[in-house]
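INFO batch 0412 | record 1 of 1 | parsing
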Amino acid sequence: MKITIEVEIQPDEVGLAAELLSTLRTLTDHVKVVTPAAGAVGAATAPAIANGPAAPHVPPARAAPTPPATQPQQPATSLPQQPQQPQLPAAPAMPPAAPAAPAPAPAPAAQHPTPAPPPQQPPQPQPPQPQPPQQPPQQAPAAAAAAAPQGPQGTPQPLHACVPRLASPATQEQAVADVVATLRAAEREERLPQAVEELVASFEQQVFDNPEVIGSTVGVLPYMSLYQRLPEELRPKVRDRMVAKVLTALTRKRPPSADRTSFFAYADAFATLVKFEAVPMDGAVQTLARLLLKPDNRVAGVTMLGKTVEYCGEQLLRTPETHLANLWRALEAVKEEAFSYDLQYILQTLHALLPPGSQLPGAAPAPPASTPAAAAPAAPAPTSAPATSPPPAPAAAPAAAAAPATSSAPAAPAPNPTPTSMVHMGCYSGHVSTVFTMCYDATSGQLASGGQDGQLLVWGHDGTPASRLDVSSHFICSLDVLPRSGTILAAGVPIDHSNPEGPPPAEPPCVLAFSPPPAAGGPATRMGPWTPRGRLYGPGRGLISFVRSLGGDGEVFAIGENVAATTPGTAAKDVVSLYDASRGGPMEQSVPLVSYGEHRDMVTCAAPWWSNPAVFVSGGRDCAIKVWDRRMAQSVGGFGELDSGSGVVRAHGDMVTCLDTTDNLLLSTSVDSYMCIWDFRQLSLTHGSVAGPMVKLQLDTQPTLKIAVTGAPHSRLAAISTYQGLYVMDFTHLATPHTLIAPPFSDGRPFKYYHDIRWAGGPGAPGQPVLFGASDDPRIDVFGLAF
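INFO prediction complete | emitting tokens
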């Protein structure tokens, strides 16, 4: 819908109309000013009030045309930007070598298909041939000037009305023009210092102390870009007051454990001022070194350095080495546990900007190879970190220090391998209808699967069923394994064989449990009969949506269920219930340890936080993600953002479909087509605490169904299933994730989206480059990665 407003103004009313025009421009970009005598007022005749051209509309990422399924896509972030062009896939390398550890393999009869060749590049259009000039040489400059597009004309107005409009690309150009016009007018009236003070105060109130800006993925950068677009003669006065305001806030005394949200936007602003060269880099490095050496300023110094490295790491590395040496010495003084993640991110990011094997400029030479391992710095354990700082890559062991303790910086961790191709290795054949769910037991190296045919299959290493468990009374909608005992848990939806269209069957939903046969001689394929451990029923249970082992040393598991109301006239409740399979006794007699009822609709998924065995997360059809500590009676936080319409916190715009965790990160998918990455360290783990996403992106425009990172070859590698395709994404570098898409099948069969995907591995250790997919096709597809 396009709204056009026409305003008639007398010539002597121009000054009085400025505030009115400012308000109208917040409603629409199409404001036309006319005078009774001259008609529409153009830019040339009324520069003080004419409205400039509207900013170009940036289409949302969802509106981009869907690329062919054979092409790998770079994720479309949720930030307003132009869609990225898909890249043609490289021809996959040879299929990955057989894993060294026991791992399932495709059935022997399956052929290893030859990957489809990449599609041909379309012919590139030829550049237009230069045309002879139509103007005489002496007229060309004038003609070019006349043809140049005119920018928006500014209107003097209160600066607090301009600053919020800097955030949106649609209003930013006009907002900048209005700020410049206001400062120019104040300069003519000899009140420029007061106007600059008003501008900086508006930034403090509406940007630096604004919770919406602090929690935003784009931070203060759109606002701070105003500095670059100010006229040269106005920049020094704005710079001096802005830098003073920012440094005053950052140099207040704080303990290392201080809540960073109180000053994070100021640290972000400092880094942008360095990026825009308002603060010289050598001066910034010296300021950072001084703050790092003071325990009361260290939390701000670490945060400022992290943001500076994020925005302008290359500029930092070009600083004179004498200044950098002082910075590395200051970093050596940072020993607090709260900063270990920040230091790892800072050093890894800087090393990534250098040639392989190089040391940081200004650092002393590396010690001899004979330096004992005990002299190396301990591997930092991730803790709290800035909201937008990418997480570090995992490292198997710390490297030796790059220099003696007096002037050294730790070496970067070994980089994660990047996948170069994904190939379809074959299929597991054994089911006769849709396969809904799978689980992988890393101890035995066996996959289990279940679905619509009432069969629970446990697969051998040769890709054929090693065991068949009859559960013909139920569909299997969810599977998991208790790691300590190897017990398989299956969530069952009852089947009515007699009348599919009639009333529900008498058999209620339940969780079925099966104990494995003994594995002689250590972990090996479990052959032989599995022993039923019973069925877990529940009074008034209407539906079981999932069953999930919560890991750790115990046998605790969670189920999502709909429970009938105990009081007549009240609605049924959607709850997460916890049970302990190690308590002994028949499963039929088990009672919940606790039930959590804070979701407002069906609870669809859950995942343990492997780094903290007491904590797990759940997602639901209410678009919420809840964080739970099983020692507490209520949630200890949530991930999401406040929905202004409903007043509730939502993690996604539609049902949450899957959750998985790695290190201190949570990954989520949703029907809204987005995948999000969240950081547990941004939560205080108290009831009511909320943290927003670190990353929000789309792989295509279709609903996103499943995500799997547990058991992947490294902890920053995720498999993602959507209605359109199967992807593997390396998110070691969050700003530029590397994505592969599964190739077409060599037998020409159409793609069927995957109800479940699993890596051949378990939590806490790198898995094998083997990925399983379960779909409406009774066969389970097996994919391999090459690096």
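INFO post-check: The chain is about 20% helix and 25% strand.
INFO record closed
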